[in-house]
Design a protein that fits this description.
The structure is a homodimer.
Chain A: E1 8-12, E2 25-40, H1 48-54, E3 59-71, H2 77-94, E4 102-109, H3 116-129, H4 134-143, E5 152-160, E6 163-172, E7 185-190, H5 196-208, E8 214-215, E9 225-230, H6 241-259, H7 261-264, E10 272-280, H8 283-294, H9 297-304, H10 310-317, E11 330-333, E12 336-340, E13 343-344, H11 349-358, E14 361-367, E15 373-380, H12 384-390
Chain lengths: ~400, ~400
């Protein structure tokens, strides 16, 4: 792992989750401060921690991010807002920072008040265990998980202006995943130096091509948050010009690597589905079509069953709300041409079915004749396991 | 049943479906002609029979509607259009009508060409079996089914201008059901007399409150069609004024009775879910919110599991694309208040869970403080059976 300089990490169990083996509270600390940027859910019903962070980013000097899992502090009214503020205050106090140098994140069940004594315990336990090595990082990465099957992390390094710069990120999410953020939390750290405005711009751009291009079932969450913290520990001056562009490219790659781990770990999923849209007028058109195909239960169940029922894919494009000429549509599934110029192409159903069943990744390419825009979008299939899991989550 | 005068019916097996016990072709005949109106899918990728009917309705003198099940004649390009025209010609010839007095409907698998010899056999077999009694009507109602568990019919009678007028309808649909029509077909018959323009207006209005307020998984089909045929056999003069309004009210009620049978028979469904939205600015706002809640897999799986996980319902309203004050939202589930003025209300989870499990119908009422508009919307829950069924439909 390429761990950025200037950060410390800890994860602990403080009792929000029932299972004592599972971390449910994490701290990410920047002892000398970090530039911070954030992108958030666009759900009108957003959680208290989202409100808390949103008005505070971008920021020039953030010292601590506190995250709890097992409770989303969402749909909790005024008391939820007070609890989010108190969580920020407790985290700041635990690491000797000012209250306005803290950010908070919560994920888990909606509509239950945060158990504040446990939150206080989590903050003080974590503060005592802080470390800057991989073990500490992994412990923090576990503390943000809910129904995830394992940690979701990525890192890389690049040389900018003659100095090595590192990026490392962690994220979580497996259900309630709709594009424009998901019940996902993400923290990306770097020891590059970034001006707050630049940090916000590169994070927003990277998120548009990564975290905003994934879905599990398309249900947009109340809590989605991705934070970028830049400690500047590897550099003297903030990035600019070509170096900033190179950083943005690396950040985008890293965010795609993190984001695709989410639908790949979609609840019960047996396939990661990549939907590539080519030849639309605009990128928004491409995203809209990709998202509509991705969120069709009929498309998702077909892939789960290894069924090359391409009519479900083509018919979903038609209700995406984007104008196009149906006679110009083509479809390639795992390299097999199934539909061309708006008419079916004869193909061997067994061969295509086998190729779906044999691979974890299913690649759908839909082509249009409207313009030069394109997008890639990732989702999971829909399995019996997803339904079993979600039919009995709170009770 | 209140069967309208002026119609004949037949259903037969002609070999489009494999099972010889299952009807797959139906005729509805108006020997002396009928006024006809239609409402159709808004999917850009629409099937050939939709194109055929759409340019022909409203019409003053339709003599025959031919319907096949087992093959949707959708995504079939130019050849599909030729086949739809030929199906209309065959049906008209079989009952001694002109080609332009016919309408056609198809439902079933997408992207396979219609087997025209079987279609020809179906038309001629049906023409020989035509009857105007309930047995004949039920046989036609069976011939339009695909994955439905049984026929979906409704009828009523009312007195208009001193004469009895009858309405009877049949519909089909259980999967690929999204609002703004569904993979659903519907035919509503009446012996009232209607001018073509009035027929179109009352059908469109009734559909907005019935067939356009249902979903199973929200996947908008390529074939959705509802036709209204008015023989005028019970009356001399076309309805107008108060009589027309009374007819429209009865038609709307009948369409709601037909439409709700579709999600009630949603593939694998164990609950019919009624979502009532109150207090939005416009009916379109209400519909948009209802539809977003209805199509959330997380909401549907929660109801399937008898889980009063109300956070999923409230959070879905926030990404419907409608502006509202989250602090004004309330939620009542099966009569239990769970959320009020944007904050949770303490409730006994066991009691609410039991009420979901014990009833086929789950009633969700969401209240807003934006205006006077409201809507009712119906959907099915999402069960393991739905996934099993749809993971293996064509192969």
């Amino acid at each position: 792992m390429h761990l950025p300089l200037g950060f410390q990490f800890a994860g602990t169990h403080c009792g929000i989750k029932k299972n004592p083996q599972k971390e449910d509270f994490s701290l990410v600390v920047a002892p000398h401060g970090a530039t911070a940027a954030g992108v958030y859910t666009q759900n009108l019903v957003f959680a208290a921690p989202v409100a808390y962070d949103r008005h505070r980013t971008p920021a020039a000097d953030i010292r601590v991010v506190a995250v709890n899992s097992g409770n989303a502090n969402a749909c909790t009214g005024d008391r939820g807002m007070q609890d989010a503020r108190e969580m920020g205050r407790l985290a700041a106090a635990a690491v000797g920072a000012a209250e306005n140098q803290s950010l908070v994140m919560s994920t888990g069940v909606i509509g239950v008040f945060l158990p504040m004594e446990k939150v206080a315990a989590g903050a003080s336990q974590c503060a005592k265990q802080l470390g800057s090595d991989e073990t500490a990082f992994m412990s923090a990465a576990r503390g943000i998980l809910t129904t995830d099957q394992g940690t979701k992390i990525a890192s890389r390094s690049l040389v900018l202006g003659g100095r090595e710069v590192r990026l490392a990120g962690m994220c979580k999410g497996a259900g309630m995943i709709g594009p424009r953020m998901a019940t996902m939390l993400g923290i990306v750290l770097t020891d590059a130096a970034l001006a707050p405005r630049d940090a916000q711009a590169v994070l927003a751009s990277a998120a548009r091509q990564s975290f905003n291009c994934i879905s599990v079932e398309g249900h947009m969450s109340t809590n989605d948050t991705v934070l970028l913290l830049a400690s500047g520990a590897a550099q003297a001056k903030p990035l600019a010009g070509e170096d900033l562009a190179a950083f943005e490219a690396a950040l985008t790659e890293l965010c795609i690597e993190l984001a695709t781990q989410i639908p790949d770990d979609g609840e019960g999923a047996s396939h990661l589905i990549e939907i590539e849209i080519r030849g639309t007028k605009t990128t928004d058109d491409a995203r809209q079509i990709a998202q509509t195909v991705a969120n069709s239960a009929l498309v998702k169940t077909a892939i789960a069953g290894g069924d090359p029922n391409w009519g479900r894919i083509v018919s979903a494009t038609g209700y995406a709300g984007v104008r196009f000429d149906p006679a110009g549509v083509g479809l390639v599934l795992n390299g097999h041409v199934l539909y061309e110029s708006g008419a079916p192409v004869a193909f061997d159903a067994k061969t295509v079915s086998t190729s779906i069943k044999a691979n974890r990744l299913t690649k759908i390419v839909l082509t249009f004749r409207e313009g030069p825009a394109s997008i890639r979008f990732w989702t999971s299939d829909l399995n019996v396991e997803y339904v079993r899991f979600n039919a009995d989550y709170t009770t």
